[in-house]
Amino acid sequence: MERPKKSNYSNPAPKHKGVRYGGGNFIYDVYNSGGRRLYRISNLELALLSILGGAFICAGTLFSLLIITEVTSVGMQYLLSALGLTTGMLLVLLTNSVLFTEANIYVPNNFYHITMMRGWLRLFRFWLISWFGNIIGAFVFAYLVYLTQEHSAIFKQNLATIINAKLVHSQTHNFRSTGELILSGMLANWIIGFVAYFALVSRNLMNQFVIVLLAFALVIAANFQYFPFNVSYLSLNTFLGAPMPLSEAIFFNLIPVSLGNILGAGLLVAAPLLFLSKKR
């Protein structure tokens, strides 16, 4: 008589041999799997996921502005703003949408495993498509909000205050201000890059929420420059606030910040992970 087969559900979850939860090998495995996911999707899929990611972050940015409307404490404004932006980031994580900065972190860890030329071409592909996709998604969402809602003077004042803070380094148009933007972008993506790892390996949604919330509060309070946030604020300001020349915002803010985010992800996140992977 043939014995009944054991159900797969009774077997324990597979374990990484020689890998500790949170150890260097486990970190590498998490980022490596994320990079493979980005490599497999087509240009159209990447574009759609990037547009969706930009829209979600812009939705979180709108939420962050709405919940601080009647708040006078600066510290509470930072915390509540982080709450709104965390909502947008969790939507990105839960839907597997794509952010420009996500590609910066995942992809450098993977293109070393294939030919260098092919790796660089794929890397530029992700940068280009996700950069424009996030901008399109944010501006489309902001325009739809403009068509459907009216906002108070306090809302617009808070938005103007944040825009002025984001553009504080962009008004002088010299090498020093550009360098400050790049360095600020590096610090922002260093913090958020490792937070993305902790969110990915976290066991439940509440842990993800707390981790991302505290990191975003730090980035907001320190006024570090992060491309998805800046795009969202600029898109909302274009339709709901006091419009400014988009060419100035792109060339003197978004491009230097994007470069800083790339360097921060490559030098401060991807490079340490590649070093840890050599210990395998």
Summarize the structure in words.
With 280 residues, the protein is an all-alpha fold. Helices cover 74% and strands 0% of the residues. The protein contains ten helices and no strands. The longest helix has 33 residues, at 116-148. The protein is globular, with a radius of gyration of 20 Å. Mean pLDDT is 82; it is low at 6-21.
Keywords:
280 residues; mainly alpha; Glycerol uptake facilitator protein; 10 helices; globular
If you consult CATH, what is the topology? Glycerol uptake facilitator protein
How widely separated are the two ends?
46 Å
How many strands, what sense, and barrel or not for the largest sheet?
none
Low-confidence residue ranges: 6-21
Helix content: over 70%
Sheet/helix structural class: mainly alpha
CATH architecture: Up-down Bundle
Roughly what is the average pLDDT, rounded to an integer? 82
Shape descriptor reads globular
| Number of E strands | 0
Instruction: Specify the number of helices.
Output: 10
For this structure, what is the CATH homologous superfamily?
Answer: Glycerol uptake facilitator protein
Strand content: under 5%
Rg result: 20 Å
Encode the helix/strand succession as letters. Answer: HHHHHHHHHH
Number of individual domains: 1
SSE order and pairing:
Blueprint: H1 24-40, H2 43-66, H3 74-95, H4 100-106, H5 116-148, H6 153-166, H7 175-201, H8 205-222, H9 227-240, H10 246-277
Helix pairs in contact: 1-10, 2-3, 2-5, 2-9, 3-8, 4-5, 4-10, 5-9, 6-9, 7-8, 7-10, 9-10
